[in-house]
Design a protein that fits this description.
Strand order of the largest sheet: 1-2-3
Structural class: mainly beta
Strand content: 25-35%
Number of helices: 1
Number of strands: 6
Distance between the termini: 29 Å
Order of helices and strands: EEEEEEH
Radius of gyration: 14 Å
Helix content: under 10%
Oligomer: single chain
Length: about 110
């Protein structure tokens, strides 16, 4: 459903292949960044290092069950352009976190 890319020095979020959300934070030169993408109802929010960076509304989600395996670091059916970096402390939640919960998440630096 969501595709998250680093486009230059900004986060770019696509939903079903359509451009939906472009982060405002400049990540150029940062060794690490904590990204949190939250979708609930018609709201999609992007947090960078615990601070709301960008938000938008969509048509809304009725179900994310589609029978397709979760893929991280690649696009389904794509043979090129795998993740060009590292992921640490990846978490998936069954609900949208509140802004306070996002801000309280620890920043992991390996």
């Amino acid at each position: 459903r969501y595709e998250v890319n680093l486009n230059g020095s900004q986060v770019d979020v696509k939903e079903f292949g359509q451009h939906n959300l472009k982060g405002r934070s400049d990540l150029k030169g940062k060794a690490t960044a904590r990204l949190h993408l939250s979708g609930q109802g018609t709201s999609v929010k992007l947090y960078v290092d615990g601070i709301l960076d960008a938000s938008t509304t969509t048509a809304g989600v009725t179900s994310i069950s589609n029978g397709v395996d979760l893929q991280i670091g690649t696009t389904p059916g794509c043979t090129g352009a795998p993740l060009g970096g590292k992921l640490d402390d990846l978490r998936l939640y069954a609900r949208a976190l509140s802004p306070g919960e996002v801000a309280a998440l620890p920043i992991s630096i390996a």
